[in-house]
Design a protein that fits this description.
Blueprint: E1 2-3, H1 6-20, E2 30-32, H2 44-49, E3 56-58, H3 67-88, E4 93-96, H4 100-111, E5 116-119, H5 130-140, E6 143-146, H6 149-157, E7 165-167, H7 171-178, H8 184-191, E8 198-203, H9 217-225, E9 231-236, H10 244-257, E10 262-265, H11 269-279, E11 282-285, H12 288-292, E12 301-304, E13 317-320, H13 324-335, H14 337-343, H15 355-366
Parallel strand pairs: 1-2, 2-3, 4-5, 5-6, 6-7, 8-9, 8-11, 9-10, 11-12, 12-13
Helix pairs in contact: 1-7, 1-15, 3-4, 4-5, 9-13
C-alpha cells in the first residue's frame, strides 16, 4: 500500500486494519509525499502510532510547489518507487485516488509488471490535474474499487472489464461508522480552541488547471469570513499542490490577525478531523471531504469554485462561485434553520460505511489469480 498524504492514509485506515489481520498475506506500507515533510506535520508518525509498520519511506517533495517542481517530483518518485518495488517484490500494489505521488507509484508498478488495485477510480474533479492522473492510474490497474455505480460505469467506459470493476462505496464513510468521535470538550482541550456560538472548518486547496491556480479565490473567501465577526474558524492547510504554499501563507497571516477566533493545523488526523466536523456548523472550502464524508455527518458543505466540479454530491452541498458575495450568501444559507434540517435527512451517494469489508473480500477471492495482463473492454453504445 502506498500513501502520500494525511487524508489518504486516514481514508485507507479501515482497510489497513483488515489487511494487517489477514494471515495469508503480508502488508507492506510505503510512505511518501507529504507524510515525510515537516511543513505538513510529518504525518508518517500517525501511521506508526496506529500500530502499522512502514516498510519504506520515499522522499520526493524536494523541488517546491511550482509546476516544474511537481513534474520533477513525479520523475523522482517513479525512479525511487522502481527501486523499492524491486526490493519489496509485492504481489499487489494498492493505490488510492489521484495524486501525483500515486501516479508515480502506478507507473513504476506497471512497468515492473506488478498488478495494481485502484480505489476511487472513475470520479471527476475537472478543476485539477489530478483528474488525468486518476484516469491514467485506472488504465494501469487490474482491480477497480469505485465509490458509486456511476463511477463504476465510467471505469468500464475507459475500457476496463466489468468483471474487474466493483462498486464498494467510499472508505471515508467507514471511519464515520467505526471511529469513536471525540466530544466537544475533549476537542477544545486537544486543539487549544474554544468553540463559539457558530463555527466552521475551512479546508481549501489550489485549483491546478486554472491559468492562475490560486487566483483571488482564497482571498475572496477570507474577505467573506470577515463578514462573520463572531464566527469560530478552524483551518487545515493546503496539500502539496501547485501554489499550495501561497494559500498556507495567507492562512497563517489571517490567523495571526484574528487569534481570538481562529486556529490553524497542518494536519488534524482522521479522528480529530471527523470529530471537528461533527462539532462545527458547516465545512467551507473545496476539499473532496466536503463532498464525500461531510454529508454522512449531517452537516452543510459550502463548496467553492470548480475544484470538485464533476463529482456526485448530496443535497447538503451548496455550490457557489468563488467571489465574496456568493461565498457570503452560501455560508448564510448553510446556517439557516431550514437548510440545517435538510442536512439531517439527506442520502449520501457514497455508500453505507462498509467499503473496507467489500474490498478485502474481493482481494482475497482474486489474489491468487491476479495478473498485470488484461484486455481492453469495448463498451457498446450509440453516439
Amino acid at each position: 500500500m502506498v500513501t502520500g498524504s494525511r487524508a489518504e492514509y486516514g481514508l485507507f485506515a479501515p482497510l489497513l486494519k483488515m489487511l494487517k489481520s489477514w494471515k495469508q498475506a503480508e502488508l507492506q506500507i510505503i510512505a511518501t509525499g507529504m507524510h515525510l515533510s515537516s511543513e505538513f506535520g510529518l504525518t508518517y508518525k500517525e501511521v506508526e502510532r496506529d500500530g502499522f509498520r512502514i516498510n519504506k519511506r520515499i522522499k520526493i517533495l524536494l523541488f517546491g510547489d511550482t509546476e516544474e517542481g511537481i513534474a520533477k517530483s513525479i520523475g523522482l518518485g517513479i525512479t525511487r518507487f522502481a527501486e523499492v518495488f524491486k526490493d519489496l517484490k509485492p504481489d499487489l500494489v494498492l493505490l488510492f485516488g489521484d495524486r501525483f505521488e500515486t501516479f508515480g507509484a502506478a507507473v513504476a508498478a506497471f512497468v515492473a509488471n506488478i498488478p495494481i488495485a485502484h480505489i476511487h477510480g472513475g470520479e471527476l474533479t475537472e478543476g485539477l490535474i489530478d483528474d488525468a492522473f486518476r484516469h491514467s492510474i485506472t488504465k494501469m490497474s487490474v482491480l477497480h474499487f469505485t465509490s458509486t455505480e456511476a463511477y463504476r460505469r465510467r471505469v468500464m467506459q475507459l475500457g476496463e472489464s466489468p468483471a474487474s470493476v466493483f462498486k464498494v462505496g467510499a472508505l471515508g464513510i467507514d471511519n464515520i461508522h467505526t471511529l469513536d468521535l471525540l466530544p466537544k470538550e475533549t476537542l477544545e482541550k486537544k486543539l487549544g480552541f474554544t468553540f463559539k456560538r457558530k463555527n466552521i472548518l475551512v479546508t481549501f486547496h489550489p485549483v491546478t488547471l486554472e491559468k492562475d491556480p490560486l487566483g483571488d479565490q482564497f482571498k475572496n473567501l477570507l474577505c467573506a469570513l470577515n463578514d462573520f465577526t463572531d464566527l469560530g474558524i478552524i483551518f487545515t492547510k493546503a496539500n502539496a499542490d501547485t501554489n499550495g504554499k501561497i494559500i498556507n501563507k495567507l492562512i497563517d497571516d489571517y490567523v495571526k490577525d484574528n487569534p481570538e477566533r481562529t486556529k490553524v493545523f497542518p494536519s488534524l488526523g482522521q479522528l480529530v478531523y471527523l470529530s471537528v466536523i461533527r462539532c462545527v456548523d458547516a465545512v467551507v472550502g473545496n476539499s473532496s471531504s466536503g463532498i464525500i464524508e461531510v454529508p454522512s455527518l449531517g452537516k452543510p458543505t459550502v463548496n467553492i469554485g470548480d475544484r470538485q466540479r464533476g463529482r456526485l454530491r448530496a443535497k447538503s452541498v451548496i455550490d457557489c462561485l468563488a467571489d465574496k458575495k456568493s461565498i457570503v450568501f452560501a455560508i448564510r444559507k448553510a446556517f439557516s434553520k431550514e437548510f440545517l434540517n435538510l442536512c439531517h435527512t439527506v442520502s449520501n451517494p457514497y455508500g453505507d460505511g462498509h467499503a473496507a469489508g467489500r474490498i478485502i473480500k474481493i482481494i482475497k477471492e482474486d489474489f491468487s489469480t491476479l495478473s498485470a495482463k488484461k484486455s481492453f473492454y469495448d463498451v457498446r453504445f450509440r453516439l
